[in-house]
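Entry 14. Ran structure prediction on the chain below.
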Amino acid sequence: MHIHDVSPWRHPHSFLTGREESAERRTRIVVVLTVAMMVIEIGAGTLFNSMALLADGWHMSTHAGALGIAAFAYAFARKHADDHRFAFGTGKVGTLGGFASAVILFIVALLMAWESGRRLLTAQTIAFDEALGVAVLGLAVNLVSAVILGGHGHEDHDDGHHHGHPHDHEEHDHNLRAAYIHILADILTSVLAIAALLVGKYLGWWWMDPVMGFVGAAVITKWSLGLVRKTGAVLVDHSDDRELREEVRAAVEGDADNRLADLHLWQVGPGHWGAILSVVTHAPRGPDHYKGLLAAVHELSHVTVEVLSCPGEDCGPQEVLQRPAIMAR
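Output, C-alpha cells:
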C-alpha cells in the first residue's frame, strides 16, 4: 500500500496562549513561599493554640498542593503540546488543573468548618500576641504571592486573538485563575485570623477565633463552587456563548443562500475555540470558501466544514439534504 505524504495539509493543535511558561515560573515561586509560611503557621498555631492560625496553616498546606498541581499542568501541557494522542492538543490541561484546585478548595472549606465547630464547643486559651505576629507575617507573604501571580487569570492577548465583541470571560487561563483564587483565600483567612485574634485579645471573646473559621469556610466554599462550574463547563464542552454562535451564523449565512444545518462550538484552550459546521446551499463551493467567511471570527482556531447540496427551492432544515458532502478541516 502506498502512503501519501499529507504534511502540507496538516496544521498544529497547540491551542495555548504563549504565556504559560511565565505563569508556570511565577506559580513555582508562590509554591515555595506558601510552603514556608505553611510550616510557620501550623507550628505557631499548635504552639499558641490558635484555631485561626491553624486554619490558615492547613489552608496554605492544601493550597501548596493545589499550586503544585497548577505548575505541573503548565509543564505537562507544554511538554505534550505536539503529542498527536491529544486530539485537540493540551489546551484544556490547565482547565483540568483548575478544576482539581477547585475541588481541593472545597475540601479545605469543609475541614475548616469541622475543626472550627469542634473548637467552638470548648473554651480555648490562646497566646494572642505571638499568634498575631505570625498572622501578620502570613498576610504579608500572601499579598506578595498575589502580586507575583499578577492579580488575575485572564491577561490581555498579544497573539493576534483580539476580537470586536466581548468574549473575555471565555479567555481565562483557568489554571492561573485557580492559583490566584487559592492566594485570595489565603489572604482572607489571614485577615480573619488577625481580626479574631485582636477581638479575642482586647474583648476577651475567645470564641471569635473559631467563628472566623466558619466565615472563611463559607467564603471559600462560594469561590470553589464558582470555579468548579466554570472549569467543569469547559471540560465537558458546554458553551452558552450565544454571541459567538450568532457571529458564526451571520458570517456564513450572509453569503449567497447558505444555511447552517448544524453547528458545534467548544473551547480547545484559553481563547481558542473549535467549530464543526454543516452548510446547506444550492451552489456548493469548496470548504475553504466557507472557512474564509469565518476568518474574522478570531476565536476559531480549529474549523471543520461540511458542505451539503440543497435539492429544493428552500434550503431550510425541513429539506432532505443531498449527499455526498464535501468536507475539510
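The chain is about 55% helix and 10% strand. Will compare against last week's run tomorrow.
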